[in-house]
Amino acid sequence: MSLRYAAPTLLLLAACGGAPPDAAVAEAPGTEVVEDATAIDWSACRLPASALPVGGRLFVVDGGRPAPGAEPGREAIRRVDIEVPGPVSLLLTAPDMTVWMVRVSPETEVQAVFASGDESQRITGQRLGDARLAVSAATGQPCGRYWRRDGDGPGYAEVAEAVFGRGHDAVYTMRTGTVVIGGTDSMEPDP
């Protein structure tokens, strides 16, 4: 559901607890109705075969910007190795076309994988379960976007809550095309 309003001033006045705006002002001729660009219809972005909240630890993997010299229009291959025992879910995000190659240890139980980007995203790997969804802005999906595009803001928290029904546990930013979560070769999550 998108929010509609006649003018930002009217919205602010109504939010301040004052009297509602005069009907003549609200319906004034020439008043432009504006769609709120930040409203996202999350109904198309629900993980199949999963109930909310999704259990286990939720890790965000930021694919980062494309490597220097990367060919435009070509898929980047990003590898995620998970060596964490027990239930785990992944939120993967990248700005460019990406194939996410996910490898899990025998002790890892993948609950859900969600990949989102400005360009098309694909998820590959074994034992990833049915709760997988890849979305992108390029294909017109409402929640498809690179979630760090605007910097370290509320993006991860928003998508984690909407898609997984809970907050994330750690964020890993990819620097070399591979992220290792857990185990002896584990990378440190972002602070």
Verbal overview:
It is a single chain. This protein has 2 domains: 4-35, no CATH class; 42-181, no CATH class. It has helices spanning 8-15, 23-26, 155-164, and strands at 4-5, 34-35, 57-62, 76-82, 86-94, 98-104, 108-117, 121-124, 132-136, 170-173, 178-181. The protein is mainly β and 191 residues long. Residues 1-16, 24-28 and 30-37 have low confidence and may be disordered. The chain has 3 helices and 11 strands, in the order E-H-H-E-E-E-E-E-E-E-E-H-E-E. It starts with a strand and ends in a 10-residue tail after the last strand. It has a 5-stranded parallel sheet, covered by helices on one side. The protein has a 4-stranded parallel sheet with strand order 8-6-4-11, with no helix packed on it.
Summarize the topology:
Layout (H helix, E strand, L loop, with lengths): L3 E2 L2 H8 L7 H4 L7 E2 L21 E6 L13 E7 L3 E9 L3 E7 L3 E10 L3 E4 L7 E5 L18 H10 L5 E4 L4 E4 L10
Parallel strand pairs: 3-5, 3-10, 4-6, 4-11, 5-7, 6-8, 7-9
Antiparallel strand pairs: 1-2
Keywords: Signal
Summarize the structure.
The protein is mostly beta strands and 191 residues long. It has helices spanning 8-15, 23-26, 155-164; strands at 4-5, 34-35, 57-62, 76-82, 86-94, 98-104, 108-117, 121-124, 132-136, 170-173, 178-181. It folds into 2 domains: 4-35, no CATH class; 42-181, no CATH class.
Helix content: 10-25%
Q: What is the radius of gyration?
A: 20 Å
The sequence of SSEs as H and E is EHHEEEEEEEEHEE
Q: Please, how many helices? A: 3
Number of strands: 11
Q: Tell me the count of domains.
A: 2
Strand content: 25-35%
Biggest sheet, open or closed, and with what strands and sense? 5 strands, parallel
Net shape: globular
Which sequence of strands runs across the widest sheet?
9-7-5-3-10
Kindly, what is the distance between the CA atoms of the first and last residues, rounded to a whole number of angstroms? 34 Å
Unreliable stretches (pLDDT < 50, length at least 5) are: 1-16, 24-28, 30-37
Keywords: Signal
